[in-house]
Design brief:
Length: about 200
């Protein structure tokens, strides 16, 4: 059952909400998966590391002013936590999507695209910010296609962005501005309902 006070944004298929203490088991399932964590520039986490991050997320949610939104992506039809997305607010009216981790069982269901849409609504409508950006590893083509499809623009490459397993990896940078996002709002309902 949802606690309405911790729900930040509601979409067609998913909602974004604060992480709850009861989320630890699904978080361990998601954050201990090496393939999932590779796309968020991390090694797979141990159950203790997952518990520590959950505690950190709870502390961050209570901070004022709030700088980090570490949220659960919840499938509405069955109230299942299927992923997480982290947004860090920046000093000059922008926000960075730090990480989006989607459980393998929930991939290819357009849930990540809808979560990006909900984050955009949070950033531009609720927080009144001007810019939203994210970085995707150069070989994470599904994430790149999703943010491009949503209207973000490719802004460049950060060479040797992160070292994973002893290898430096490049990342593609994508950005979306508030006025670009506002012109897209009429298109978004159809985009989220239309298969890729």
């Amino acid at each position: 059952m949802n606690n309405e006070t911790d729900v930040l944004r509601v979409g067609h298929a998913v909602l974004l909400r604060e992480l709850r203490p009861t989320d630890l088991t699904p978080l361990v399932h998601i954050w201990s998966d090496p393939d999932v964590m590779r796309n968020v520039y991390e090694q797979a986490w141990t159950p203790q590391e997952c518990a520590d991050m959950l505690a950190r997320a709870r502390r961050e949610a209570a901070e004022r002013p709030r700088r980090v939104y570490r949220m659960g992506i919840v499938r509405r039809q069955d109230d299942t936590l299927v992923g997480t997305i982290t947004v860090e607010l920046e000093r000059y009216s922008g926000a960075y999507v730090r990480a989006a981790a989607i459980a393998p069982s929930a991939r290819r269901q357009r849930l990540g695209l809808e979560a990006f849409h909900l984050v955009s609504c949070l950033v531009f409508e609720d927080l009144g910010l001007h810019r939203l950006w994210c970085a995707c590893l150069t070989d994470n083509l599904p994430a790149q296609k999703g943010v491009l499809r949503y209207g973000a623009r490719r802004e460049g490459t950060i060479r040797e962005f992160v070292n994973l397993d002893g290898t430096w990896r490049d990342a593609e940078i994508f950005g979306l501005l508030d006025h670009e996002w506002r012109t897209r709002q009429d298109e978004d309902a159809g985009l989220l309902a239309t298969p890729a």
